Amino acid sequence: MGSRPTWRDRSQRTDSRVFLRFGLPMQAGPILGWKGKRRYSVMDGTHLRAVDVATDLDRLLDSTDETLVVASNRQPYRHSYGEDGAVSVDRPTGGLTAGIDEVMRRLGGTWIAWGDGDADEDVVDEDGRVTVPPDEAAYELQRLWLSDAEVEEYYYRSSNQVLWPICHAALGTVEPCGDAWERYRQVNDQFARAVAAEATDGALVWLQDYHLSLTPRIVRERASGDPFLAHSWHIPWPSWDTFRACPHREEIVRGLLGNDLLGFHVPRYCRNFMNSAAAALPDVEVDREAGRIHYHGGTTAVRAFPMGVPAARIEDDAAGMEAAGFREAFTASKGIADGTTIAIGVDRLDYTKGIPERLAALEYLFETRPHLRGEVTYVQVGSESRSWIGAYAQYQERVEERVAAINDRFGTDSWQPVVYTTDHLSNEALAGLYRAADLAIVSPIRDGMNLVAQEYVAAQAGEDTGVLVLSDQAGVHDELGQWTVSVRPHDTTGFADAIEAALTMPTEERRWRCDALREYVFDNDVDAWLRDVIATVQTLRDGEVTPTNARH
Ligand code: G6P
Q1: Collapsed DSSP state (helix, strand, coil) of residue 513
Q2: CA angle at 259 for the pair 278 and 195, rounded to the nearest 5°
Q3: E runs forming strands in 223-297
């Protein structure tokens, strides 16, 4: 490996020690401290949130290292054939791949994911690898191929009709799992084999999300070296009372306890997971104070890492020419008159996002406050998602019907209450819309984190700042809720009151709330998230956990 530093070498550096010395005493309750002018906070045993850590990301990750291995179901870039036969590259919807792509572009390494594009196989080398991003060549994307049956049973059925609804506490939406679980096991095994082949001694393996819950334990058993296994779970972890509805609950918890580090977005999910582990497995030892679970000779640290967004880039995008041009063209083409107050919602078309409930609140608002008719337009940007699943296809129809009903009821020749688009928007276009919007309404029924709320805040530079209306059911509300106008998505009348409050908020209050939100979102951007994860890996490697090869 030449003189290139390994993860283990890096963990000896003083950079990470700063974090260890000032960040890691795991105590209960919020503690704030100061090191010179630098603030750190330890919220509880599972939540270490470093604010302005004395660690510079570039120094921490000072060279591209082939020993970083990321695995996720969804790939960051998809190659497809256009109608003219030319290959184009697109990026899937959802904040997860965008966030990790930022990380990979900085670190390099290998990202293993399902190749689902119709041109994917034609652009890879004989090992299924292609260098991405297309214009930057920063890291390797290793594609895995899934058969139609695997896609149906592992992705649609097991992942998205069992695990997804259970973790979002939508038990009425869970479908019987049947034989599909066997295919989930097989695909997790396929991912594990690909990961194990890359996972040399000292490698950092970083697994993503609920599609790969069994993979860590298999990698642990298969890898010839001693990799460090970290896993980020990007959706909620529900209470045990909900999770116990999962037909494969013990196996999933056992699988995840193959990790050295298991990350959730907020401490609540960490506590839920530790309670689930204690209840699901009789021979597990859970240290809730320290955020550690001991199981069969191994230790898994459970931590909260609230994910952030590339705030500076979004702010730049929002201020750019392309954003301004799109904003003008969009409002003109949708007939939104100058001076109209714009509210915006941006969501994957998923039943957890609360769009019909939001539309019900808007309908009630226009019904009970007639003076707002003609004054306010709500723009809903929706991206199609998982339409093969009945619950999603029906949801999309329901959203369209509600939009049409509101427009029929209140629309006039010169004003449309709701503008709905499913067009794919570039980063710049979206940033332009965020900037144009006087308020954003982010009102999921349940959401692991929600990055849209943070993207909106990042785009609010300048004097005329917007207001964020945010559901208290989103993970990000745990972080931002003190400065937002908070709503309970099913409380239609309270929701309408909240929108009205946002619309009439005095300028000064808009400003201080937005300033506080922006400070948080910029301090806790995607780089800070990465820094927290990597620094925690380093301190754990430095001896915080039992050697992982004693695990099985
Ligand atoms: C959520 C999940 C991600 C997923 C994304 C898009 O954000 O946490 O793992 O990639 O939704 O969903 P999809 O099924 O299209 O990958």
Answers
A1: helix
A2: 145
A3: 228-232, 261-264, 284-287, 292-295
Pairing of strands 298-304, 376-383: unpaired
pLDDT in tens, 106-150: 888 999 999 999 999 999 999 999 999 998 999 999 999 999 999
Mind listing the pLDDT tens digit for each residue in 153-197?
Answer: 999 999 999 999 999 999 999 999 999 999 999 999 999 999 999
How deeply is 509 buried, as exposed, middle or buried, from its count of CB atoms within 10 A (0-12, 13-18, 19+)? exposed
Q: Quick one: average pLDDT of 93-97? A: 74
Cβ-proximal residues to 127 (8 Å cutoff; 6+ apart), any chain? 142
Residue spans per domain, the chain? 311-523
Backbone angles phi, psi at 69, to 5 degrees: -125, 115
Contact residues for 197 (Cβ-Cβ < 8 A; gap 6+): none
Fold of 311-523: Rossmann fold (3.40.50)
Residue 457 token pair:
């805040």
Residue 10 CB–ligand 1 contact under 6 Å: no
**Residue 453 backbone class (left: φ over 0; alpha: ψ -120 to 50; beta: rest):** alpha
Average pLDDT along the chain = 87
Q: How far is 41 from 23, CA to CA, in rounded Å?
A: 7
350 Cα–ligand 1 center, Å: 10
pLDDT in tens, 196-209: 999 888 899 999 99
Q: Which residue has the tokens 């609540």?
A: 268
Are 474 and 440 contacting, i.e. CB atoms less than 8 angstroms apart? no
Whether the CB of 350 sits within 6 Å of ligand 1:
no
Q: Tell me, using a 6 A CB cutoff, whether residue 544 lines ligand 1.
A: no
Cα 279 to ligand 1 centre (Å): 28
Residue 444 backbone dihedrals phi, psi, to 5 degrees: -65, 155
Name the 3-class secondary structure at 422.
coil
Q: Which atom of ligand 1 approaches the CA of 211 most closely?
A: 9
Q: Distance (Å, rounded) from C-alpha 42 to C-alpha 32? A: 7
Of the candidates 437, 258, 481, 261, which has an alpha carbon nearest to the alpha carbon of residue 344? 437
